[in-house]
Amino acid sequence: RSHVSDKVIPIGKRAVLGGSKDDLFQLLEQLEKDVDKNGPFLCGKDITVADCAAFPFLWRIQNEYNCLGDGHDADCDTPRLKAW
pLDDT digit string (tens) for 37-47? Predict the structure, then answer.
């Protein structure tokens, strides 16, 4: 959960408010690896508070940038996050 509050929220907020999307895409790629390694949820096989905390921010990021997906966005390829 601290990963979400320490990274996802501030980086996502900066990107939505006009900051660099590069940090956001790097963070999404790291979350993609975490879901792949631990999955199907952010912290393992069961849903946790981290998933609940991350969901509204990742949903907003998806609505703003349409960047959670299946490789169609050259900057961010995160099909597992989209499935999550």
Answer: 777 888 888 98
